[in-house]
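About this split. The held-out portion is used to measure sequence recovery: a designer receives only the structure tokens and must propose an amino acid at every position. Recovery is the fraction of positions where the proposal matches the reference. Here is one held-out target exactly as it appears in the evaluation file.
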């Protein structure tokens, strides 16, 4: 019997837990506040920002929103971030990516205070993760670990293969799985004999950015498959990096697309916001 890992349910559980924590913080006169900055009107970004606002409202987090025009100068954006860094009532700062081409994303990420970096993208956050110190973890990888744990899928001692080495998913995912005592292999576009490596995996995490790329030939019998991809197919329906129907007969557990990893990203962003507010108490 295949376990379909329900990210919607788990994300709702997490948000309900955070609701209680937010109430407790309010009793200590701390109102958790997230500031979201969007530059331009990219349609996908607009949807993400709207979903983040909805999640904040549900949990009881105050949401500040800055919607800046496409032609906003890099220095203007940096000035705004520096102002928000200084504000004691703002706990988390999120700059929605991608940014317009005239703005240097790396410079913007590095401008956000590491203590307010709820996306977990700042080099200091990445450094903390790599050496096992506490800090903000990139939301999608953190969400994957929560899915595995809350479905009682053992990680320790398992062979985990991650396809993709992006700074947002692949690399932090590898470090998190190492932290959980998995044996980790990272594959990428230059990997040779990909299917030989992936078919050893007890846990296969796919963040390759190619629709339905992973078929049953890549999957070990009884593996757990986590699909981080999100695409539109020829019928305009959402699909992932994994050919879900093709691999279903071989896996023991799998995340669907939609409804798997996707909802967890925003849930873990909310988690990081509450964590940032709790830092004020330390």
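Reference sequence for scoring:
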């Amino acid at each position: 019997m295949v376990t379909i890992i329900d990210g919607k349910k788990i994300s709702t559980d997490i948000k309900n837990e955070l609701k209680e924590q937010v109430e407790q913080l309010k009793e200590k006169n701390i109102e958790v506040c997230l500031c979201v900055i969007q530059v331009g009107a990219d349609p996908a970004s607009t949807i993400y920002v709207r979903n983040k606002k909805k999640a904040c409202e549900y949990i009881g987090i105050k949401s500040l929103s800055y919607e800046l025009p496409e032609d906003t100068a890099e220095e203007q954006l940096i000035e705004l971030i520096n102002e928000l860094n200084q504000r004691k009532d703002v706990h988390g700062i999120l700059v929605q990516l991608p940014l317009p081409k005239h703005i240097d994303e790396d410079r913007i990420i590095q401008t956000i205070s590491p203590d307010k970096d709820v996306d977990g993208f700042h080099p200091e956050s990445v450094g903390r993760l790599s050496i096992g110190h506490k800090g903000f973890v990139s939301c999608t990888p953190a969400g994957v670990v929560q899915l595995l744990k809350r479905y009682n899928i053992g990680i320790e001692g398992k062979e985990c293969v991650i396809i993709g080495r992006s700074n947002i998913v692949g690399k932090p995912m590898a470090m998190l799985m190492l932290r959980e005592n998995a044996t980790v292999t990272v594959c990428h576009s230059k990997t040779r004999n990909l299917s030989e490596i992936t078919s050893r995996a007890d846990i296969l995490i796919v963040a390759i950015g190619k629709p339905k790329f992973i078929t049953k030939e890549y999957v070990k019998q009884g593996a757990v498959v986590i699909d981080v991809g999100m695409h539109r197919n020829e019928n305009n329906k959402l699909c992932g990096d994994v050919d879900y129907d093709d691999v279903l007969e071989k896996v023991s557990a799998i995340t669907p697309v939609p409804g798997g990893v996707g909802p967890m990203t925003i849930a873990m962003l909310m988690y990081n916001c509450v964590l940032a507010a709790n830092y004020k108490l330390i």
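Annotator remark: The chain is about 40% helix and 15% strand.
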